[in-house]
Every structure is written in C-alpha cells, then in structure tokens.
Amino acid sequence: MVALARPVDQIIAKFGDKVKENVPLAPYTSARIGGPADIFIPVDTVAELVRVVKFLWKNEMSFVMLGGGANILVSDKGVRGVVVMNRAKGVKFNTSDQPYVTAESGVVFSNLANRCASKGLAGIEWAAAVPGTIGGAVYGNAGAFGGDMAGNLISAELLTENGRETLTVEQMKYAYRSSVLKRGEMKGIVLSAELSLTNSTKEDVTVKIQQFSAHRKATQPPGASMGSMFKNPNGGYAGKLIEAAGLKGTRIGNAEVSPLHGNFFINHGATKAADLRALIQLVQKTVKEKQGVELELEIEFVGEWNV
Predict the structure, then answer these.
(1) Mean pLDDT of the region 62-91
(2) Cα angle at 259 between 207 and 142, to 5 degrees?
(3) Is the pLDDT of residue 1 over 80?
(4) 306 pLDDT band (50/70/90 cuts)?
(5) pLDDT at 81 over 50
(6) Cβ distance 153 to 141 under 8 Å?
(7) What is the average per-residue pLDDT within 79-98?
(8) Domains in the chain, CATH or no CATH each
(9) Which residue numbers are catalytic?
(10) What is each CA distance from 112 to 96, 120, 143, 219, 291, in whole angstroms?
C-alpha cells in the first residue's frame, strides 16, 4: 500500500468531498478579514465534529475551530493546517418548572436567545446582541448587559483526549472573558452546553430583547468588526480610555477605530489584517502613554503571523 504523502490526502481519504483546499476565511469571520485555510472541513453534527477532531488529534494535525468567527483576527496569510467549521446546531428545550435549554456548539447565540423568547423563556436576553456561537461563548465566557455565560451555564459537554466529558460551570473556572479552556489549562472542544432559563411570557422577554438591541444599535457601530477589541480594565472601560486618548476615528488603511465606540474597530472594506493589527498596537501604545493603562486584548490572533 502506498503511503499518503500529504495531510490533506489523509483527510480526504477519511472524510471525502466535504474537505476543501485553500478556502478564503474572510467570509466566515465577523470582521470579514483573513487569508485562506490550507484545509477546510465543515461539520454539521456533533457526531461528525467528534469524528473529525479525534482523527486530527490522533494524527497530530494542528487545527483551528471556527464557529461564528467573532473575537478573532485571521492573518492575511491565513491558516496553515486545518480549519474545522462547526455547524452543529441541534437545540432541545426542557420547559419544566425549572426550564433549561441544551444547545450544540455551532448554534448562533443570538438566534437561540430569540428562540427562547418565542417560547416565553427568559434568562439569556443579554445574548440577543452577542455575535458568535454557543461554543465560542462557553470558551470565552461571553457576556453583555450584565449577563454572561458563567451566570447561565449549568454544564458543558466537551471532547477531550479522554473522550466526552461533562464539566459543571464551577469546573469551567470562569473569570472575566476567560475559562479553563481559553487559558489553556485544559485541552478540549466544546460540543454542547446546558443553560438555565426561567419561565416568563413571550411579550416580556421580547420587550427586553428589543431594549437591549436598541441600546446596542445606539451605542455600537454597524459594519464588519470583531466585537469588543479589548477587555475592560478593572474599574474602567476600554472604550472610554481610547476616547480619552483621542483615538476615535483613527485609521490605518481601511481599518478604523469607530467614531461611535472606541472599543470597536471597523473594516471599511478590503482591510488587511496587518493594518488592523497595526491599529491595535497603536491604540495600546497610545493608551499606555496617555492613560497609564495596558489594554488587554479580548480578541485572539489566528493563523500565520510575522512576529
């Protein structure tokens, strides 16, 4: 038997026509920025996600998980290796006296919040304006309007090298926009999450979502962005520090610090990841010099970067 020379040949032999080569990643990110993935594998179910990840781990192939593509900046050179596009979107509701919902990791969080509203289930209205998927929210402890994943998560099912494991919210060791997974203290892929809800009425939940959405439209810019660029420092707000440093409206190439909200960086079209990264570094340097605060990134850099 002839050995398969390239990783992509092994992957194609295992997963067939679903595997694509040299796929531009910009359309799959909220910032609409990023070069190609060498190998791109979309998965539609949790079972398929488990199968793909187990294969990649077994063969020691590096990979990047992609869901809603928020909170990441993909380099212009793209990703060497594999990108797994998670489209596992199963949802199950339990409408007992103590309701909860189980959502697979590829579910778009804002869509789930609206589905809960349609059933008169409250508790995750804050997520109606959150970009990204359940998997990313569990990984990064996403939050908005005073709510966060740590406040709603009952448990998360992960795939680890030991198999499928269920972690309680306590075992996720959540901190502000951080978890045991994001800090690299545990190696695992989010498969699904069980979130606590409360019984309400469709009208009340919908009104609350509309209020949050209206507030977001009034205070956060439209257009392609990654969401909040920096974490809020203790006792302060990154956006206000950036504004106080006179950086609103600052541009490098087609990347701009939003004139509406300083913690959002906008892609005005055909923006290079390198320009956006340079803008990030300029903002960090200026805020440190003028305000004495080191801004910590909320987003993550993905792909091949020149250090």
Answers:
(1) 96
(2) 50
(3) no
(4) confident
(5) yes
(6) no
(7) 96
(8) 7-86 (3.30.43.10), 91-218 (3.30.465.10), 222-296 (3.90.78.10)
(9) 177, 228, 298
(10) 18, 12, 15, 23, 39
